[in-house]
Amino acid sequence: MNGHVLAPSSSPSAGLPLLLTLGDAAGIGPELICRAFEQGELHDTVVLGDPSVLRRAGARMTAVIDSPQDRQQVPPGCLPVLAVPGLPAGLAQLPWGRVDARCGAAAAACIEAAVRLVQAGQGRAIVTAPIHKEALAAAGSPYPGHTEMLQALAAAPGQAPPPVRMMLANDELKVVLVTIHLSLRSAIDALSFDSVLQTLRIAHAAAAAWQTARPRIAVAGLNPHAGEGGLFGREEIDFIQPAVQAARAQGIDAHGPFAPDTVFMRARRGEFDLVLAMTHDQGLIPVKYLGVEQGVNVTLGLPFVRTSPDHGTAFDIAGTGQADPASLIAALRMARRLAAADLLPLRD
């Protein structure tokens, strides 16, 4: 990531496996897992899911284990799979590329199991294969996506969920989002002085943990031309600029707000270490335009490391053998790096 080297770890979790969730059984997640395994990228990883789904997706041999520690006894060439209890029956018989509540329920169960295990000290990080938000909703989940579900599951009993933020990163650009899975109208309503300042704090802590001691953070405006002095909206004047000033007073090297149509280009050219984007698509479009193959989604603010590929379930190619595991591999490698550096104060 921009040449920054992470420190070696003395963390007690260093010998624990990564926990990789199945994702949507009708999407490309199972195939990505099988391909990553074939390329030797799951050497320290346990898959949480349904063995039959993985065999359908191309796993030549699977070894069903009862706990992450059993990975050590798995014969070479076998994919270690922890069969999550209570998954819907017949997942491997469902058609590829279709929304199904059973796939959503299975995906949610695998995520919940991964969080329980990492909280119990049986895994050093979580990597999640893509889920389908419609399938998740069809299964009755109250969460619109991975980030919100993980945030809720990470909360200690009787305590409020930790503030979290989504970061999308590749070798050219890192973007942290103030709002995520909301309609555009709701996202604008959710923006405030507090939400922008809190995001700046979380982003600063994360980037500082990557050994960028005083990361340069560019803040994208919400409106065209960052509001053009109030001509195209007052959000920049009313709370975005004040939040930037408050962050700077706290020692954070924040700048802006800048015109959204040029700030990502400036960061890509090296002027800034990361960009704060106001809404989901504002931040994700430039990252994904550069190529989803190496993009990684990192959830900042959780009490454990979580990464995922920078793409969805790709129902249009599921089951065709065309899925590219590059982004999943990048997510696995990023999880190892973050866990190895023991970067858990990535919170406000």
Radius of gyration: 20 Å
Under the CATH scheme, which architecture of the largest domain would be assigned?
A: 3-Layer(aba) Sandwich
Order of helices and strands: EHEHEEHEHHEEHHEHEHEHEEH
Number of helical elements = 11
Distance between the termini: 22 Å
Query: Which residues form runs of ≥5 with pLDDT under 50?
Result: 1-10
Number of domains: 2
Named CATH topology of the largest domain: Isopropylmalate Dehydrogenase
The helicity comes to 25-40%
For CATH, the homologous superfamily of the largest domain is named as Isopropylmalate Dehydrogenase
**Largest sheet properties:** 12 strands, mixed
- Going across the biggest sheet, name each strand in turn: 3-4-2-1-5-12-11-6-7-10-8-9
Strand content: 15-25%
Query: Which structural class should the secondary elements be placed in?
Result: alpha/beta
**Global mean pLDDT:** 91
Overall geometry: globular
Structure overview:
This protein has 348 residues and is α/β, with parallel strands linked by helices. The protein folds into two domains: 1-159 and 300-345, 3-Layer(aba) Sandwich (Isopropylmalate Dehydrogenase), CATH 3.40.718; 173-289, Isopropylmalate Dehydrogenase (3-Layer(aba) Sandwich). Helix content is 36%, strand content 15%. The protein has helices spanning 29-38, 51-57, 101-119, 133-138, 146-154, 184-190, 193-209, 235-249, 260-268, 280-289, 326-340; strands at 18-21, 45-49, 62-65, 79-83, 125-128, 165-169, 174-177, 217-220, 254-258, 274-277, 296-300, 306-309. The protein has a twelve-stranded mixed β-sheet with strand order 3-4-2-1-5-12-11-6-7-10-8-9, with helices on both faces. The longest helix is centred in the N-terminal third of the chain and has 19 residues, at 101-119.
